[in-house]
Design a protein that fits this description.
Belongs to the eukaryotic/archaeal PrmC-related family. The chain has helices at about 20-30, 30-40, 60-65, 70-75, 85-100, 150-155, 160-170, 180-185, 190, 210-215, and strands at about 50-55, 80-85, 110-115, 130-135, 190-205, 230-235, 240, 245, 245-254. The protein is of the alpha/beta class and about 250 residues long.
């Protein structure tokens, strides 16, 4: 089992504290089934894979992949970038990468930067080879505003209000917890490269089987006319609680 990156250098007043969902992603990405898939999907003679994590939070997932690129992909030449709507996360992520160097005598991936932005909006079309997203998936009545006005208004509010706002961004998913995730999936065809793969975390309340079927049948077309057909497979699970599977990792690819 690969070591979990340390986050002892961080405080978690404004960013998401790694929890069960985070560790499920780490375990899934480093599982034999996924390291085999990734090494075969991105063999050494092919172009360098570009990995994008959306909503990096503490940076623990990207740090993990950067440090253990050779183990996970069977090649160290990864380029990694992260985005997050919170500038606190954009500062935390590179710090976590620096605090978690690769094992001795082992090459690592190349971490490029962490951008403060919405989803993958700065990316050129079709450049992302591996997309990783642990979204705000908790069903809520509303999703916090993420406009520039919303952020500028924070300067007039208490530190408690600011902390509450940023933490709400990490979990509040709107109806069925899918508000933000649906936006990502609507634009997935434009984001992923022809060989692109998405690793997406969903909880039981997100109705993951319905999401998977919608992807398989072209139900995520941004213009409403129907989208591409995707392969979808559940590749990780948190197990059962009271008869319900709480969290799952789903792999989506062309």
């Amino acid at each position: 089992m690969l070591p979990t990156p340390t986050t002892a250098h961080l405080t978690f007043t404004h960013i998401y504290n790694p929890s069960e969902d985070t560790y499920l992603l780490l375990d899934t990405l480093s599982s034999p089934s996924q390291t085999t898939f990734l090494s075969q999907h991105f063999p050494p003679h092919t172009p360098t894979p570009f990995v994008l994590e959306i909503g990096s939070g503490s940076g623990i997932i990207t740090s993990f992949i950067t440090s253990h690129a050779l183990t996970i992909f069977s090649r160290p030449d990864l380029l990694l970038l992260t985005t997050d709507i919170s500038h606190h996360a954009s500062l935390a992520t590179p710090t976590t990468v620096l605090h978690n160097p690769p094992p001795p005598n082992c090459s690592s991936g190349l971490f490029l930067d962490s951008l403060t932005t919405d989803l993958s909006s700065p990316m050129r079309r079709g450049v992302v080879d591996v997309l990783i997203f642990n979204p705000p998936y908790v069903p809520t009545d509303t999703i916090p505003f993420t406009s520039s006005t919303a952020f500028s208004n924070l300067s007039t509010r208490s530190s408690f209000d600011e902390e509450s706002y940023y933490l709400e961004l990490t979990y509040a998913g709107g109806e069925d917890g899918m508000g933000t995730t649906n936006r990502l999936l609507e634009g997935l065809d434009e984001t992923l490269s022809p060989r692109g793969v998405l690793y997406l975390l969903l909880c039981a309340q997100n109705k993951p089987e319905q999401v998977a079927e919608r992807l398989r049948t072209g139900g995520y077309g941004g213009d409403g006319s129907g989208g591409p057909l995707w392969k979808v497979e559940k590749v990780g699970s948190s197990g059962l609680r009271a008869g319900w599977e709480v969290l799952g990792i789903w792999r989506v690819w062309r």
